[in-house]
Amino acid sequence: MKKFSQWVNSIADAGKELLSGKARQDKSQSLASLCNELCTSKGEAMGTAIAHEVVKAYSALDAERRLAFFQMLHKDFGADPKEIVKCAEAFKQAPGRDTYRALYHAVETRRQILFSRINMAPDGTETLIQLRSDLLDLLGQYPELGGVDYDLRNLMISWFNRGFLTLEQISWETPAHILEKLIAYEAVHEMTGWGDLRRRLADDRRCFAFFHPALEDEPLIFVQVALVKGYAGNVQELLADPTEGKTDSRGHKPDIELQDGFDTAIFYSISNCQEGLKSISFGNFLIKQVVLELRQEFPQLKQFATLSPIPGFRSWLSKELANRDSTVLDVKTRDLLKLLDSNDWVKNAESKEKLQPVLTKLCAHYLYNAKRGIQPLDPVARFHLGNGAQIARLNWLGDTSANGIKQSAGLLVNYAYDLKSVETNHEAFVNEGRVAISAEFQKLVKNTAVPVATKKPA
Amino acid sequence: MKKFSQWVNSIADAGKELLSGKARQDKSQSLASLCNELCTSKGEAMGTAIAHEVVKAYSALDAERRLAFFQMLHKDFGADPKEIVKCAEAFKQAPGRDTYRALYHAVETRRQILFSRINMAPDGTETLIQLRSDLLDLLGQYPELGGVDYDLRNLMISWFNRGFLTLEQISWETPAHILEKLIAYEAVHEMTGWGDLRRRLADDRRCFAFFHPALEDEPLIFVQVALVKGYAGNVQELLADPTEGKTDSRGHKPDIELQDGFDTAIFYSISNCQEGLKSISFGNFLIKQVVLELRQEFPQLKQFATLSPIPGFRSWLSKELANRDSTVLDVKTRDLLKLLDSNDWVKNAESKEKLQPVLTKLCAHYLYNAKRGIQPLDPVARFHLGNGAQIARLNWLGDTSANGIKQSAGLLVNYAYDLKSVETNHEAFVNEGRVAISAEFQKLVKNTAVPVATKKPA
Amino acid sequence: MKKFSQWVNSIADAGKELLSGKARQDKSQSLASLCNELCTSKGEAMGTAIAHEVVKAYSALDAERRLAFFQMLHKDFGADPKEIVKCAEAFKQAPGRDTYRALYHAVETRRQILFSRINMAPDGTETLIQLRSDLLDLLGQYPELGGVDYDLRNLMISWFNRGFLTLEQISWETPAHILEKLIAYEAVHEMTGWGDLRRRLADDRRCFAFFHPALEDEPLIFVQVALVKGYAGNVQELLADPTEGKTDSRGHKPDIELQDGFDTAIFYSISNCQEGLKSISFGNFLIKQVVLELRQEFPQLKQFATLSPIPGFRSWLSKELANRDSTVLDVKTRDLLKLLDSNDWVKNAESKEKLQPVLTKLCAHYLYNAKRGIQPLDPVARFHLGNGAQIARLNWLGDTSANGIKQSAGLLVNYAYDLKSVETNHEAFVNEGRVAISAEFQKLVKNTAVPVATKKPA
Amino acid sequence: MKKFSQWVNSIADAGKELLSGKARQDKSQSLASLCNELCTSKGEAMGTAIAHEVVKAYSALDAERRLAFFQMLHKDFGADPKEIVKCAEAFKQAPGRDTYRALYHAVETRRQILFSRINMAPDGTETLIQLRSDLLDLLGQYPELGGVDYDLRNLMISWFNRGFLTLEQISWETPAHILEKLIAYEAVHEMTGWGDLRRRLADDRRCFAFFHPALEDEPLIFVQVALVKGYAGNVQELLADPTEGKTDSRGHKPDIELQDGFDTAIFYSISNCQEGLKSISFGNFLIKQVVLELRQEFPQLKQFATLSPIPGFRSWLSKELANRDSTVLDVKTRDLLKLLDSNDWVKNAESKEKLQPVLTKLCAHYLYNAKRGIQPLDPVARFHLGNGAQIARLNWLGDTSANGIKQSAGLLVNYAYDLKSVETNHEAFVNEGRVAISAEFQKLVKNTAVPVATKKPA
Question: Which of A295, C16, C50, D142 has a CA that sits 20 to 30 A from residue A183's CA?
Answer without folding.
Answer: A295
